[in-house]
Amino acid sequence: GGDPAVRASEWSDWPRLATETRRLASLWATREWRPCVASTEDGPAAYAPYELTHLQGSAQLSFPESISEAIEACSGSTARIASHAQLRDQILAELDRRADQVRQRLASLRREREGAEDAGRLMEDGRMVLAYSHAIEPGAEELRLEDRTIRLDPELSPQENAQRLFDEYRRRRRATEELPKLIERAEEELALTEEYRTYAGLASGHAELAQLRQEAAAAGALREAQPGGRKQPPAPKVSSFTAPDGTRVLVGKSAAQNARVLDAASPGDWWFHARDGRGGHVVARTGGAEPSTETLTLAAETAAYYSSLRESPSVEVVYTQIRNVRRIKGSWPGHVTYRNERSARVRPRDHLGESG
User: Fold this and answer.
1) Contact, 236 vs 254, CB < 8 A?
2) Lowest CB count within 10 Å: 152, 179, 214, 230, which one?
């Protein structure tokens, strides 16, 4: 009737009330529903399957195609925000746990490497035990020399003690050969985990986080949430915008998206990335031409924004043509080296959504 706060005892236009009541009741027969959302400055405030005429003076009315969209506009958005925050926190916590595990393994490998570097001394100790075997009493626990003391197994003969030292020397030598590869693999795994942590912090919505989690699980940075092994996530959608001069700018916001950006680029296109930072690859599709000053700035600012340096007031961004960018064989998608780069210092800004 116009004012939802009016009391029934104060109402006098009973014919109008009867008309509106019949109109609402007739919707069950006519099925002429008109989903409606009333919004104020604070956002969506109410929804109904009919026009909210009583709120016309205090709210802006919009008419979604379905009641489901109306419900989502009012209540689903809040739930999605909460779910988005919870999912982000969950992913970050899992990545932090994984990073801690890798750091512990890496520290253990490095300690083992330090021990392996002393392998040569074991060979010398074994030779000393053989050389002084005639002076070693049965059951002796050590051999004391001028420059060293060699620990012995009292239950072994001098020859057996020497062999034990030679065996340990060979074991450590084998470890020395394998450790560099194991350490390199662990360092790369830690870098990958930190890379995905950056992407999780930059993700702007629930859908991006869900996709990112799938990618991280497929890459081995996270454990698969569901049993059955790692599943290949669907091909990621790459975001883009068009610069004022018509140049299309592609923006990667995850490792898989970075790989897609590189796949879509031609050798003459220009690649942008925050120097000394983790994060997205940005490509300006100029077709070989030098990017205009404005396009260069927009691409560099976007690369700075979608990086681990986003909160910095100024970020140095390197850029070079795609022909100078090389993927690192055996590494994660989008992990590259580059040469012949130039650089620009810019303020991080997000230009996605500013054009088509």
Assistant:
1) yes
2) 230
Calpha distance 160→145 (Å, rounded): 19
Model pLDDT for residues 100-133, shown as the tens digit of each residue? 999 999 998 888 777 665 677 888 899 999 999 9
Q: What confidence tens digit (pLDDT) does each residue in 314-351 have?
A: 999 999 999 999 998 877 777 899 999 999 999 999 99
- Any residues with CB less than 8 A from the CB of 45 and at least 6 apart, and which? 38, 39, 55, 59, 74
Q: Are 305 and 273 spatial neighbours (Cβ–Cβ below 8 Å)?
A: no
Helix (H, G, I), strand (E, B) or coil at 332: coil
Which residue matches tokens 């509106």? 20
Q: What is the pLDDT of residue 181?
A: 86
- Return all residues near 60 (Cβ < 8 A) that are at least 6 apart: 38, 39, 40
Phi first, then psi, for residue 125 (nearest 5°) are: -60, -40
- What count of other Cβ atoms lies within 10 Å of the Cβ of residue 247? 22
Q: Of 313, 319, 316, 338, nearest to 327 (Cα)?
A: 338
How far is residue 318's CA from residue 31's CA, in Å, rounded to a whole number?
60
Phi, psi for residue 242 in degrees, rounded to 5? -110, 125
CA-wise closest residue to 271 among 241, 300, 239, 298:
300
Partners of 317 in the β-ladder:
274, 344
Residue with token string 């400055």: 41
| SS3 track for 42-85 | CEEEEEECCCCHHHCCCCEEECCCCHHHHHHHHHHHHHHHHHHH
With a threshold of 0.70, does the pTM exceed it?
Answer: no
Does residue 38 sit in helix, strand or coil? strand
Query: How many residues make up the chain in this entry?
Result: 356
Query: Is residue 176 a contact partner of residue 74, using CB atoms and an 8 Å limit?
Result: no
What distance, in Å, lies between the first and last C-alpha atoms of the chain?
44
